[in-house]
Specification:
The complex is a heterodimer of chains A (482) and B (476). By secondary structure, chain A is α/β, with parallel strands linked by helices. Chain A has one domain. Chain A has 12 helices and 25 strands. In chain A, strands 4-3-7-10-13-15-18-21-23-25 form a 10-stranded mixed sheet, with helices on one face. The longest helix of chain A is centred in the C-terminal third of the chain and has 17 residues, at 442-458. The two termini of chain A are 12 Å apart. The relative contact order of chain A is 0.10. With 476 residues, chain B is α/β, with parallel strands linked by helices. Chain B has 10 helices and 22 strands. In chain B, strands 1, 2, 5, 6, 7, 9, 11, 13, 15, 17, 19 and 21 form a 12-stranded mixed sheet that branches. In chain B, strands 4-3-8-10-12-14-16-18-20-22 form a 10-stranded mixed sheet, with helices on one face. The chains are: A alpha/beta (482), B alpha/beta (476).
Chain lengths: 482, 476
């Protein structure tokens, strides 16, 4: 029995990363390394207005004064920022008018990834913005959305076509001085998605961005900005993959969300960057700053994430609950295997009165991985009658992995209630036994239990993501009996 | 630097700085180490170097993020390096908890005081008394344990304390001996000067031994003080200890109390931290399971008001398999007080079948009170059951409503609820007379009657009276 289980663990943990292919597309690079010239090159390449160049340069100069953060429970070899291409774009002749003009190789790539732009455009009713390496290659559905006054386009288009909006909101939630990787991103970000939902509009389809790192030695720095005006609603999805390579690649993204009065934003991520091989070689370094601000009263921001990839994950989607009665939510499943390391969690900053937040975090660690939850719940003096409930559970599979929980709870007024609970344990022998007794093999029993364990989070995902996420979970963990 | 000429006898108050302490150490080194076994002098030198490297902690350090010593250090203190003379021991240390029969060990301004001999060896082999004296009489026994557990965590206050080991309490319970009555350490600060005190305690429990220890920190007047107390406790195989720490100091006192527990195979510890008063209290509790099947229950209750600050740091190191630990810390914070709880449970790779629970609950009574809670689990092993919880809130409104509905006045209802809240921790106290007295004190504390006792915590000269609330219980 024991050896059987070990065999299954072996098989499962060695299962291949199925998105590890490289697409052969002609790519254009910026000169390797980072300097003020690189920043100017990127800005010029994108034909940006002066304010953008200024923003980038300010960020770059600030970045030079900063030190690499070392507080996270992560073991990261030093990163040589001069050995990275900060800009890599599929070579293209001009803007695409329709799908027919898109490089067929590229379309094939997205087909392989399971996101057929074409098909989704017709059937699923999901508007997709696909970002490969650093540049947005295709946004579907823009015209339909335009009817509602919704702006959904790549960041570079937004800079060209809606500079006022960009100027107003870019850096308003995550300032260029925020942290090391956010500053870096502010200096060299190449593209990303921009989304603006006007007053009172409920976005009829789910918006989605697909990120892919293709070229070697590149860093991907995308920037997403979502603004939901008064009473607007949008559900936004993000997915990511990268080819299998021996060296580590850097991904440092920034996502900013602004929710005005009565607005709701739901942001879902399925992160499946290449996690490195089973010896911990290669993989993506994922350093992401995600933050939303509930600016107006009764607004709501909800983060849902399923983290299965990346060699190193450093990510804390946060909510600033400024408006009265605003609501912040964070649902997360983080899976680490082999030598993966994840230090992830959330920050809930309660500033307005009657603000509420919910944090549900499920960590699953297997192999030799380390999985940490790091969260902050801060109730400021004026956030009277605020409420927070946090639950972070860790599931351990295998005796060589680690699971850690660092919750920071700061309360400064008497009328608020903060609750935090966490458990750490391995898969219950009883549950396993029960399932196996009823004729399930160990592998599917574990799949069932893990999926049940993560259910609370998975059910928050939009339908089609939920299916993908469940599959991912099964692939990563089935059969991992401790 | 400017204090290179600081003399032991110097009675001038100074601002305590790293430089001052280092200069003072060099000045006193010879006098301090006069009774040292050779390794202890080496240990002192090493400790002062480590202290000089780190200096006093600032809020920039993660472990001190929420506790600022700025105010404590803005006062000038006289560093105590010489014992008090001419103390009327009888007068200072009389403890009159009814029916509480303890062996009392007195400490005045960090120095061990006694009416007869400084170190006693009882018939059953228990040795108890002054650490300084134990260094002279039982150097091997001290050498086997002193500095072995407070070791390498790099805490600046512990390093400083180690460099300046002068006196404190020493208790040794031999194998298979069960101490017939509880031992009570009463550490009193009583001076007309602002004192900077350091004391060092060493408690060694042999195999299969048993000890109840009540450790009180008290101050007599409103004079400012800064104490840095380090206690090392070694519990041999299957030893059992019931440990109580009572803190009732004045509002201008700062107490940094570090306790290092080392538990061998199957040793069991019950520890209670009862913090009733104090300007700034910081309890560092570090516990290591050095053998399998150990168990530790750590309870804490803190009742703070005015500008008081309490900081509980609990670190439990599951270095061996099959150990169980449980923490429960509850606090009530009133007025401008602030509380910090940092719990850290580390389950190492080989510590299979570990059970660890952590819980921190806080009640805030005013808009200006605040709390920082960080229950932290670090786990490198899959065969564990660990959980932690933290809540912060106010008194249960439903319970309040229920009581009010039954005709109980708001104040009484509040008191009853707060008392019930604290009772979860207090009810764990096993020494009955002590429990009654603490129940009484908590009740008084909640009613704002207990400022600092005129004398020590256990000294309250009020006659024993039953618990009473101004309500008719028969109506409930």
């Amino acid at each position: 029995m024991e050896s059987d289980q070990n065999k299954i663990i072996g098989e499962v943990t060695q299962s291949d990363y199925k998105y590890g292919f490289v697409t052969d597309i002609e790519t254009e690079y910026a000169p390797k390394g980072l300097s003020e010239d690189t920043v100017r090159f990127i800005s010029a390449k994108k034909n940006e207005p002066a304010f953008m160049l200024e923003f980038r340069l300010k960020a770059y100069r600030h970045w030079l004064t900063m030190k690499l953060p070392t507080w996270a429970h992560l073991d990261i070899p030093p990163i040589d920022f001069q050995d990275i291409y900060f800009y890599a774009a599929p070579k293209k002749k001009k803007q695409y008018e329709s799908l027919d003009q898109v490089d067929p190789e590229l379309l094939a790539t997205f087909d392989k990834l399971g996101i057929s732009l074409d098909e989704q455009k017709k059937l699923a009713g999901v508007a997709v913005d696909a970002v490969i390496d650093s540049v947005s290659v295709k946004t579907t559905f823009s015209e339909t959305l335009a009817k509602y006054g919704i702006l959904f386009c790549s960041m570079s288009e937004a800079v060209q076509n809606h500079p006022d909006l960009v100027k107003q909101y870019l850096g308003s939630v995550v300032p260029y001085t925020d942290n090391y990787y956010a500053s870096l991103n502010s200096a060299v970000f190449s593209d990303g998605s921009f989304c603006y939902i006007p007053k009172g509009v409920r976005c009829p389809v789910e918006l989605s961005t697909y990120f892919r790192i293709n070229a070697a030695n590149t860093g991907q720095f995308e920037r997403t900005l979502i603004v939901a005006d008064e009473g607007a609603y949008v559900s936004y999805m993000e997915g990511c993959t990268a080819p299998q390579r021996d060296e580590n690649q850097l991904h440092a993204a920034v996502v900013e969300i602004v929710a005005m009065k009565d607005a709701q934003v739901k942001y879902s991520t399925v992160q499946n960057w290449y996690p490195g091989d089973k010896n911990g070689k290669g993989g993506i370094y994922n350093f992401v700053t995600k933050r939303g601000i509930c600016k107006g009263s009764n607004s709501k921001i909800s983060w849902t994430q399923v983290e299965t990839g990346s060699a190193v994950t450093w990510k804390y989607p946060s909510c600033i609950l400024l408006g009265d009665n605003s609501v912040g939510e964070f649902y997360s499943v983080a899976v680490t295997n082999n030598h993966q390391q994840a230090d992830t969690g959330t920050k809930m900053m309660h500033l307005g009165r009657n603000t509420k937040s919910t944090v549900i975090s499920k960590g699953i660690s297997a192999g030799k991985s380390n999985n940490s939850y790091r969260g902050l719940v801060r109730i400021s003096k004026n956030a009277t009658n605020s409420r927070n409930y946090s639950q972070c559970d860790s599931l351990l599979l295998g005796s060589a992995c680690g699971a850690h929980t660092w919750p920071y709870i700061q309360v400064e007024n008497k009328s608020s209630i903060v609750e935090h609970e966490a458990t750490t344990s391995k898969i219950s022998e009883d549950q396993l036994f029960y399932c196996q007794q009823r004729g399930m093999n160990a592998e599917s029993a574990i799949g069932l239990i893990v999926n049940g364990y993560a259910k609370e989070v998975l059910k928050q995902l939009p339908m089609e993501f939920a299916v993908e996420a469940q599959k991912l979970l099964s692939i990563s963990l089935e059969g991992s009996v401790g | 630097m400017q204090d290179a000429g600081y003399k032991m006898q110097d009675s001038v108050r100074r601002n305590i700085t790293k430089e001052l302490m280092a200069a003072l150490y060099r000045e006193c080194r010879e006098a301090l180490s006069v009774n040292d076994y050779p390794a202890l002098t080496v240990l002192r030198d090493k400790a002062i170097r480590s202290f000089e490297e780190s200096g006093f902690p600032t809020t920039k350090l993660e472990a001190w993020k929420n506790t600022s010593l700025k105010e404590s250090f803005s006062t000038e203190y006289k560093v105590v390096v010489q014992p008090e003379t001419g103390v009327d021991v009888q007068k200072v240390f009389l403890c009159n908890i009814p029916h509480l029969d303890t062996a009392i060990m007195g400490q005045l301004n960090s120095w061990y005081v006694s009416k007869d001999v400084p170190l006693m060896k009882l018939g059953n082999g228990i040795i108890m008394g002054s650490l300084a004296e134990a260094l002279k009489q039982y150097p091997e026994l001290v050498e086997a344990h002193l500095g072995k557990y407070s070791g390498s965590n790099g805490d600046a206050f512990t390093s400083l304390n180690t460099a300046f080991i002068m006196d404190g309490v020493f208790i040794y319970v031999p194998d298979d001996v069960k101490s017939p009555k509880p031992v009570q350490i009463i550490n009193v600060i009583h001076s007309n000067e602002n004192l900077f005190l350091q004391s060092r305690n060493l408690i060694v429990l042999g195999k299969n031994s048993r000890l109840s220890l009540v450790h009180c920190d008290d101050s007599y007047n409103q004079q400012a003080s800064f104490s840095n107390v380090v206690t090392e406790i070694h519990m041999g195989e299957a030893a059992f200890m019931d440990h109580y720490k009572l803190q009732n100091l004045n509002n201008s006192s700062t107490l940094i109390s570090s306790s290092y527990f080392e538990l061998e195979t199957a040793a069991k510890l019950e520890s209670h931290y009862i913090s009733l008063n104090g300007g700034l209290l910081r309890n560092n509790l570090r516990l290591r399971f050095n053998g399998p099947h150990g168990g530790a229950n750590v309870y804490g209750i803190y009742l703070m008001d005015r500008k008081q600050h309490i900081d509980n740091q609990v670190f439990i190191d599951h270095a061996s398999p099959d150990c169980t630990s449980s923490e429960l810390f509850k606090g009530i914070l009133d007025e401008h007080s602030s509380g910090v709880f940092n719990g850290h449970v580390l389950v190492r790779r080989d510590a299979q079948r570990t059970n660890a629970y952590q819980s921190n609950r806080n009640i805030l009574l005013t808009e200006t009170a605040k709390v920082n809670s960080k229950p932290f689990l670090e786990i490198y092993n899959d065969d564990v059951k660990c959980s932690h919880g933290s809540t912060t809130g106010q008194l249960d409104q439903d319970a309040m409503y229920y009581l009010r509905q039954r005709g109980i006045g708001e104040d009484s209802a509040r008191m009853l609820l707060m008392y019930a809240y604290a009772d979860e921790v207090i009810s764990k106290i096993d020494i009955e007379p002590l429990r009654y007295r603490i129940e009484d004190m908590v009740k008084k504390r909640l009613q704002g009657e207990l400022q600092i006792c005129e004398a020590c915590v256990l000294h309250c000269n009020t006659p024993e009276r039953p618990m009473e609330f101004m309500i008719d219980m028969s109506k409930i």
